[in-house]
Amino acid sequence: MDADFISDRIAKLRTEKNISARDMSLSLGQSQSYINNIENKKALPSMQMFLYICEFLGVEPKDFFEEDVTSPGTLNEAVATFKSLSPKQLEMLIAIAKEMK
């Protein structure tokens, strides 16, 4: 992980949600170029703003740094859904997932 990771990760997660940098900036209460400046490596967010960005993107801060997880928000949603399933249903889902690999 290097200094560009945060900028690149924000861009990737934002793009996955199909949200423009301008709309995200304004939704966070910032200037319209705020996210663009971060993604272009001209600035980094403060810790407080980083937490707001994670919340906006639907990502836990710890998951933001999981490089091998491409869609952490979706993964968290899946895990939350799986928690209510029976053991048999979970086994069936695991079997399906293994077949998809």
Unreliable sequence segments: none
Sheet with the most strands? none
Number of strands: 0
Class of secondary structure makeup: mainly alpha
Shape: elongated
Question: What portion of the residues fall into strands of 2 or more residues?
Answer: under 5%
Into which percent range does the helicity of residues fall? 55-70%
| Topology order in helix (H) and strand (E) letters | HHHHHHH
Give the integer mean of the pLDDT values.
91
Task: Report the total helices.
Answer: 7
Report the C-alpha radius of gyration, rounded: 16 Å
Distance N terminus to C terminus?
A: 26 Å
Report what the structure shows.
- The protein has helices at 5-16, 21-27, 34-39, 47-57, 61-64, 72-82, 87-100.
- The chain is an all-alpha fold.
- The chain is elongated, with a radius of gyration of 16 Å.
Q: What is this structure's SSE topology?
A:
Elements: H1 5-16, H2 21-27, H3 34-39, H4 47-57, H5 61-64, H6 72-82, H7 87-100
Quick summary:
The protein has seven helices and no strands.
